[in-house]
Write a structure and sequence with these properties.
This protein is of the alpha+beta class. The protein has one domain: outer membrane lipoprotein receptor (LolB), chain A (Clam). Helix content is 24%, strand content 33%. A hairpin with a 2-residue loop joins strand 11 and strand 12. The protein is elongated, with a radius of gyration of 20 Å.
């Protein structure tokens, strides 16, 4: 399921391009008001006045997992290989049927590491996303039906090729003209999940399904032939929801808040710079 890593890297790159294109389409019109919280400070599950709401889905803990590592088959009978396939199929069905999700983690990228936190609709039509990249800087992106709102540091604006007026936005959000379609496509979890799961079949799985506690959740662990070191999918035992995905090389994404209420909102007008065009 290396598509997860590829997707995070591509999504951050696409976001920078989309922001640059929209930012270059007009000049800024500052509005009065107190500056919003610093870029990169927002995460799922925290109260943030810039978002205009408190997200109701908490970001997963990054505390070490408590392993029980019990090998063997799982409920449903059959061999351990078929059990792994069954766990994967249930996780896939639930992920593709979900309406909302929160995920947080990191992906290695060209000697650095991209960190991402996202909460919102699985198609990203409504989402609150924070990204951090050594090459592209830090940004918080709020996507709602009324438009895209981006709060970024100087490194992100510069790497995105934003005009000078945008680079002077400071800690305020910049609202790009047009709708949120482009950025939503970049961060769509549904699109990513379809590609990732379609690239897997039972032959990709190890014969055993093990057990481990991840972020306080009892999970079934599905791995490749080389075990967890190669990469793993951790699926909750009680709900068959993805809890964690890992991949060789340091990729880790933690998932929570499946189907939680959606509360993402646009920032207050006083904290927004609107682009013309």
């Amino acid at each position: 399921m290396s598509s997860f890593s590829t997707w995070v890297v591509a999504a951050v790159g696409s976001a920078a391009v989309a922001v640059a294109l929209t930012a270059c389409s007009g000049e800024t019109t500052p509005s009065a008001g107190a500056p919003s919280p610093a870029v990169g400070s927002a995460s799922a599950g925290t109260s943030d006045p810039a978002a205009g709401a408190t997200t109701s889905t908490a970001a997963p803990s990054t505390a070490p997992s408590s392993a029980t590592s019990t090998s063997g088959s799982t409920a449903g009978g059959g061999s351990s290989t078929s059990a792994a396939a069954q766990v994967l199929e249930k996780a896939k069905a639930n992920a593709l049927a979900a309406r909302t999700v929160t995920f947080k983690g990191g992906v290695p990228d060209d000697g650095g590491r991209i960190e991402i936190t996202s909460t919102g609709a699985v198609d990203a039509s409504t989402a609150d996303i924070s990204v951090s990249s050594p090459k592209q800087g830090k940004a918080r992106i709020i996507i709602v039906p009324s438009g895209n709102f981006v709060q970024a540091d100087a490194a992100f604006w510069k790497s995105s090729g934003a005009p000078a007026s945008v680079q002077k936005a400071g800690s305020k959000f910049v609202k790009a003209p047009g709708d949120a379609t482009s950025l939503a496509r970049s961060f769509s979890f549904t699109s990513l999940a379809v590609k990732a799961f379609d690239g897997l079949d039972a032959n990709d799985l190890a014969p055993d399904v093990t057990e481990k506690t991840v972020n306080g959740v009892d999970c079934l662990v599905v791995t490749g032939p080389d075990g967890e070191a190669q990469g793993a999918l951790y699926v909750s035992k009680d709900g068959n929801q993805i809890v964690r995905f890992t991949e060789r090389g340091g990729t880790q994404l933690d998932f929570s808040g499946w189907n939680a209420p959606l509360t993402v909102a646009a920032p207050p007008a006083s904290q927004v710079i609107t682009l013309g065009g």
